[in-house]
Amino acid sequence: PGLLEFHFALAMVLEENRPAVKAAQNEIWQTFFGGRYLLLLMGLFSVYTGFIYNECFSRATTIFPSGWSVAAMAEQSGWSDAFLAQHPMLTLDPNVTGVFLGPYPFGIDPVWSLATNHLSFLNSFKMKMSVILGVTHMAFGVLLGVFNHVHFGQGHRLLLETLPELVFLLGLFGYLVFLVLYKWLRVSAAGAAAAPSILIHFINMFLFARSATNRPLFPGQEVVQSVLVLLALVMVPVLLLGTPLYLLRQHRRRSQRRPAGPQGDKAGLLDSPEVSVNGWGSDEEAAGCPGEDTEAEFVASEVFMHQAIHTSSLP
Fold this sequence. Notes:
Elements: H1 2-14, H2 19-22, H3 27-34, H4 36-57, H5 70-77, H6 81-86, H7 118-151, H8 155-186, H9 198-207, H10 221-257, H11 262-271, H12 275-279, H13 300-312
């Protein structure tokens, strides 16, 4: 379906300048034609997602030749007929010249489907890729909040929410992504047997401990991990109390400047640049816009509870 949608949208894009195509009065056709570029991208990424789905959760499609060569292994290992008869399962050694030719261009190399350790390899690979993509998406979502805070003039949320969220997220899980990538790039096939465990390092990071059998990946790793954990712990009270205390302080300052009487109360609310407790209404971003005429009552308990829920949603 994705491939059909892509070709259908591609035909509309290629023929978009023809007068007969533009002059068509069919309502359904006009709807499709108006969204032809959107349909083109949807079809393209649907095909891409289908290939990725097959690679991860279904049967992979062999598009390119494998990056592993059995012939090179047989030539340099001196396997005899008697040896092959006694060993139905053989291991390919990437340290032997010519056995590993290079990474597979797309997806997982099909030779892994024949390996006895394909499940352990694929599970490890999928788990690490899930962490990398998940942390990337979460960091991207936090950065998108910057545009909302700037647009609605909520500069305090940049310092009291966005910055602590990034420090907490990247200091813990961003560091985990760094360890994964660093190990991929630094540990070769020759030293894979003695490679340290990232999972043990990550557990020891929170326990402020070390493992004698699990060597560090880089010098000073324990110091870096301790500093990152302490920074993450410091960010938790900032996230929980920073914004509520700031809003409470702003509310008290407005109450002190507000004249006595009902007219003064209404005028103080309308003149305040942070109406509705600067965005703690039903629409917390839109409600903080200057010029909003909605009168809202400041309830400290609701603000603290809302911030606690927001903080607990972090990983």
